[in-house]
């Protein structure tokens, strides 16, 4: 702050010394504005601003999940490497079990999908055999149904049935004549019993031949036609089903089943990813090499997701950010411009810096100010985060 006050006093002294000269020049009719412009050029070679020392890289780490803090590693101002565990929450064993279960589910889903391809040849052969059997069954059902439109037998079968009827009638006539001769004998007569048995057999043979001939010569009844039509409908339905099954597998595994199994595998992979993420969220790790500047959680404490936990900063590289550089001055500087930097806490230190970045929009707060970031060359050992800095940025006229 003393440096900035001294600069202002120096400027006032220059103006005071120039006033007599300006008056003399005016008396001689010389342009009064010329010395003023020169003085302005000399005093505006640099743009001055106040700033603060900050790390080039820092972040406020937050808890990735809700739970009870089990372990807080380290203390404030302790150095950690990238991926070091800073805070651990309870429940790790249960979440590891969830990860294992998800891994098993993924293996099972993958095996189902693999088996679908491996078993395809057997499935294809089964479907092909079923289709062939369905075609044969339909042909047979159609043949039976068509047969119900005619007599139950063809000419050859009818001729055989008629011949059987004639022979049966002849045998019955002979047996009947013989029976007429013995029928009056005593019922216990053995000869009579033998003739009666022969007569009964001949009569049954004649009746059977007559019934068979009548059946073959007549048309099928309604019940037989209905049964044949029902069998035909069933055969057609089976053929349609067998054809659909064959169409599904003839060119490869069933696409619907394959899509379903692929979906199961994708879901299992996502479940595993979610389980692993939940396990990882039980640990807060350092995103980069840095020093813990503040710790806001304690062991045994319930924390919520997103709650601030630690302030981590890479203190190996410090820089300066301006806090009051106005819109007029920021328009006069460029990235890469050199600057001189001094500090209230280190009065004997003067550093060289370079404008690394100029904010694209104004900072929040009173006035229209822009944050300009400057890199520091030859950082002193005692320089600390948060110290006040004064910067003089060179302006290229």
Describe this structure as you would to a colleague.
The protein is rod-shaped. With 397 residues, it is α+β, with helices and mostly antiparallel strands. It has 9 helices and 14 strands. Among the domains are: 1-43; 44-89 and 289-394, Efflux pump adaptor protein, beta barrel domain (Elongation Factor Tu (Ef-tu), domain 3). Strand 10 and strand 11 (350-358) form a beta hairpin.
Would you state the CATH class of the domain at 44-89 and 289-394? Mainly Beta
How many runs of DSSP E, i.e. beta strands? 14
User: Low-confidence segments, ≥5 residues, pLDDT <50?
Assistant: 1-42
Proportion of strand residues: 15-25%
Strand order of the largest sheet: 1-8-13-11-10-14
Classify the helix fraction into a percent range. Answer: 40-55%
Q: Radius of gyration from the CA trace?
A: 55 Å
CATH fold assignment of the domain at 44-89 and 289-394? Elongation Factor Tu (Ef-tu), domain 3
What is the structure about, briefly put?
This protein has 397 residues and is α+β, with helices and mostly antiparallel strands. Among the domains are: 1-43; 44-89 and 289-394, Elongation Factor Tu (Ef-tu), domain 3, CATH 2.40.30.170.
């Amino acid at each position: 702050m003393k440096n900035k006050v001294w600069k202002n006093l120096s400027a006032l002294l220059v103006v005071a010394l120039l006033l007599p000269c300006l008056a003399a020049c005016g008396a001689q009719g010389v342009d009064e504005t010329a010395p003023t412009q020169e003085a302005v050029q000399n005093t505006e070679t640099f743009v001055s601003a106040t700033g603060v020392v900050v790390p080039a890289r820092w972040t406020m780490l937050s808890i990735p999940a809700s739970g009870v803090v089990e372990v807080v590693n380290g203390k404030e101002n302790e150095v950690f490497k990238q991926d070091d565990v800073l805070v651990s929450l309870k429940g790790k064993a249960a979440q590891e079990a969830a990860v294992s279960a998800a891994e098993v589910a993924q293996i099972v889903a993958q095996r189902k999908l693999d088996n679908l391809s491996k078993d395809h040849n057997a499935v294809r052969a089964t479907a092909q055999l079923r289709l062939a059997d369905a075609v044969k069954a339909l042909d047979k059902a159609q043949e039976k149904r068509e047969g119900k439109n005619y007599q139950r037998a063809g000419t050859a079968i009818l001729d055989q049935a008629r011949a059987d009827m004639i022979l049966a009638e002849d045998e019955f006539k002979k047996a009947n004549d013989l029976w007429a001769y013995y029928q009056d004998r005593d019922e216990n007569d053995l000869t009579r019993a033998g003739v009666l048995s022969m007569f009964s057999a001949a009569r049954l043979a004649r009746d059977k031949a007559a019934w068979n001939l009548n059946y073959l010569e007549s048309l099928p009844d309604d019940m037989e036609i209905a049964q044949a039509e029902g069998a035909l409908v069933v055969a057609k339905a089976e053929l349609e089903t067998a054809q659909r099954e064959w169409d599904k597998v003839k060119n490869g595994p069933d696409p619907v089943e394959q899509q379903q199994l692929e979906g199961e595998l994708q879901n299992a992979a996502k479940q595993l990813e979610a389980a692993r993420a939940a396990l990882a969220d039980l640990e807060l790790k350092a995103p980069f090499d840095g020093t813990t500047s503040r710790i806001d959680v304690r062991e045994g404490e319930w924390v919520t997701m997103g709650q601030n936990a630690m302030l981590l900063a890479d203190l190996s590289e410090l820089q300066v950010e301006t806090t009051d550089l106005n819109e007029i001055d920021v328009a006069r500087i460029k990235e890469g411009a050199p600057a001189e930097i001094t500090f209230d806490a280190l009065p004997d230190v003067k550093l060289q810096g370079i404008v690394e970045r100029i904010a694209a929009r104004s900072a929040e707060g009173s006035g229209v100010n822009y944050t300009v970031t400057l890199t520091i060359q030859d950082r002193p050992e005692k320089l600390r985060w948060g110290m006040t800095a004064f910067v003089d940025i060179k302006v290229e006229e």
